[in-house]
Amino acid sequence: MVLVPGSGHVINRDNIIKFEHAPLATPNGDVLIKDLTFEVRSGTNVLVCGPNGCGKSSLFRVLGELWPLFGGSLTKPDRGKLFYVPQRPYMTLGSLRDQVIYPDTHEQQQRKGISDQVLKEYLDNVQLGHILEREATWDSVQDWMDVLSGGEKQRMAMARLFYHKPQFAILDECTSAFYLHMDGRGNYEFKPITEETGVLPALAADDGNRDDDADEQQDEEDGGRDDAHRVHWKTKTNKDTN
Ligand SMILES: Nc1ncnc2c1ncn2[C@@H]1O[C@H](COP(=O)(O)OP(=O)(O)O)[C@@H](O)[C@H]1O
Ligand SMILES: [Mg+2]
C-alpha cells in the first residue's frame, strides 16, 4: 500500500464524525490502523480504548487537522466546532476569568453576552467553584499552570467546554482525574456536559493504565478490559448514562 499524505478527502458537515476506509498513519507514513471506518453522531459518546502508542491521540490529531489524511474520507464539522481537551491542558497567562474563556478574550466574552455569573456556573459544574471563592475575584492573576493541580487543570479545561459549546468534545485521557470525580460509580459519564449543552457528544481516549479503585469498578462493569493491541470502540448513548 502506498500512502500519500493528504490523499484522503475531508468533508465538512455538522454533527457527525465519520471515518470511511481511512488509514491512520503518522506524518512519516507509519501505519497505525490500515483501514478505519466508524461513525459518531451528535448525542453519542464514544470511548476509545487501547494500549499506549496504539494511535488514540493520533486519531484526534487527524480530527484536529494537525495530521493529514492518507486516504479514504473523513466527514466532520469545521475544525472550530471541535474542542480538544488534552491530558495536560494549557493555562494561559492572565486572570482566573481568562482560564475559563480561553482562548477567548474578555472582550469576546462580553460580545457573546456571557456574564461572569454564568462563568461561575461553569466552574461549579466541574467542582471548581471554590477557586473563585478563594481568589475572591475573577480578575485575580496567578501562575495558573503552577497554582492549579493536574486534576484542577483538567477540570478547568472541561469548564471551557461549557463556555465554548463545541459540537464535539474530544477528551484525550482526561478521564482519570475528572470523570471519576463526577460520578462516584466509576462510569465514564458525560452527563454534566450533555445536560448543559443538549447536543454535546464526546470522544475520549483511555489507555487502560490507571489502577485506582474506581477504575477496577469500571472494569467490572465493562466485564473486564480487552487488552488486545488494537483500538477498540465502545459506544454509549446518552440514554444509557441516565
Ligand atoms: N509527530 C509524530 N511523528 C511520528 N510519529 C509519531 C508522532 N507522534 C506520535 N507518533 C507515534 O505514533 C504512535 C501512536 O502515538 P499516539 O497516537 O500518541 O498513541 P496513544 O494511543 O498512546 O495516544 C506512537 O508510536 C508514536 O510514537
Ligand atoms: Mg495518547
UniProtKB/TrEMBL annotation:
Residues 11-241 form the ABC transporter domain. Residues 202-242 are annotated as: Disordered. It comes from the Eukaryota. Pfam families: ABC_tran (PF00005). Residues 209-224 have a biased composition (Acidic residues). GO terms for cellular component: peroxisomal membrane. It is a multi-pass membrane protein. It is found in: Peroxisome membrane. SUPFAM superfamilies: P-loop containing nucleoside triphosphate hydrolases. Keywords: ATP-binding, Membrane, Nucleotide-binding, Transmembrane, Transmembrane helix, Transport. GO terms for molecular function: ATP binding; ATP hydrolysis activity; ATPase-coupled transmembrane transporter activity; long-chain fatty acid transmembrane transporter activity. InterPro entries: AAA+_ATPase (IPR003593), ABC_transporter-like_ATP-bd (IPR003439), ABC_transporter-like_CS (IPR017871), ABC_transporter_sub-D (IPR050835), P-loop_NTPase (IPR027417). Its main location: membrane. The keyword ATP-binding applies. GO terms for biological process: fatty acid beta-oxidation; long-chain fatty acid import into peroxisome; peroxisome organization; very long-chain fatty acid catabolic process. PANTHER family: ATP-BINDING CASSETTE SUB-FAMILY D MEMBER 3, ATP-BINDING CASSETTE, SUB-FAMILY D MEMBER. Belongs to the ABC transporter superfamily. ABCD family. Peroxisomal fatty acyl CoA transporter (TC 3.A.1.203) subfamily. This is ATP-binding cassette sub-family D member 3. It comes from Liparis tanakae (Tanaka's snailfish).
